[in-house]
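At this stage, I put together one protein's amino acid sequence and its backbone structure tokens, which the following lines show:
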Amino acid sequence: MKTFYALLLALGICLGLTFPAMAEYPAKPIMLMTAFNAGGGSDLSHRLIEKFAKGVIPQPIVVTYKAGAGGEIGWTWLVGAKADGYNIGGVDLPHIVLQPMLRPEGQPGYKTEQLNPLCCLVFDPDILIVSEKSPFKSFGELIEYAKANPGKVKAATVGKLTGDHIFLMNVEKFTGAQFTQVPYPGGSKAAPALLGGEV
């Protein structure tokens, strides 16, 4: 965790900030912005940081939510927040690269180069899962059904131009299956939808 404290201090250096005395930082709580809803993967990793920072740094890390648009709302807020070392956030790949690249011209939002990643917290692979009540007992069975019934299988993602979306597109590309994407504002909303039979 001392490494994490050093990374927080590095945030100020990377952003070209100066502090009256580095020993005084942080002098107030640090806001850790989560760009997705509570209960999802981003939130869980941020809650661990919040928990383990206690007693390591003299001020609390406070998790706050700015969810929506596959993370774009939170990251747009982040690049506009005061760059004083007290506003930090988690970002996701490939979202932070694809969203600005494919955003309609003239639409406001962040640019990838405005975000300054400090460290990798989580490696979060995409997987395909079904409810235990599902008739599909293997990946092959699911794909064969989706190929024979284009668009009939609904697949949850956390939004367009996100890792989930790209994963689903790759599954379609390499198998010839066709799914209907149903975007949710985060994993915490997608999981109950799966269990409830919506997707």
